Amino acid sequence: MSDVFWQYNGDSLYLAAFAAGIGLLCWDQKKCRNSIGKKAAAALFFAVVFVFNEFAYRIVGKLTDTTTYYRFFWMVPVLFLIAYELTVLIASNNKGKMAAAAAVLAVCLVSGSNFFFLNRQNLNRPKNIYGLDPDAVTVAEQIMADWDKSGSKEQPTAAFDMYLEYQVRTYEPRILWGISRKAYLYQAEHGYDHLKYTRQQPVIAAVNEGIQKNGARLRKCLDQIGIDYLVIRTVFDMDSYLSDLSVHPIALGENYTLYKVE
Hints:
The protein is built from twelve helices and five strands. By secondary structure, the chain is α/β, with parallel strands linked by helices. The longest helix has 26 residues.
């Protein structure tokens, strides 16, 4: 169960705020009704039984893409309880409770990161309020700048590894990912010789591991899928290989190179 917590909490304030909400609810119940916090106990019980466990994770995973959509299911008890506690504290018009709410937010700020413009490392500029990898910002901005010059009314399609995919699409959702998530996960786990998702194999192999084999097949794949940009780790040193396929670098980040498919 701890793996489920950490996978979807990450380095954020949600679990800290959820725990604080449980504590405040328990304290409020005990103070007002001399109980041990029945509402808090019930909230925690239902959250653990129906959401925060491996069994629920697997059930939801059978119905949806677990790696993407379980986080929304997971956030239901968390966000509702946080919103409930904040509403109660503000509506009470009690200075003591308002101070408690401010203290709770301060604790969450210390426990988590990426709250407004803050994270543990630095003070982010408003353009990067999510504390994204600088490469994600560079790639997204360069793609859109180049795409705007083309005058196309369509959305640009790019292929990059999954690490960058989450971040780029958070920063600039107009950029389409030219790889199926299921295909990417399958190929990354099983290698690139299986007869499943073969149409996308060359692109996944290139962006995930920098594999430079059968350039003609990669070029055909790019054309079939309609990929406009490739983003590949610079350390893979693919400039020469891709140049022969009419795929040329147009921008360089700290760790990634952005290529345009001509």
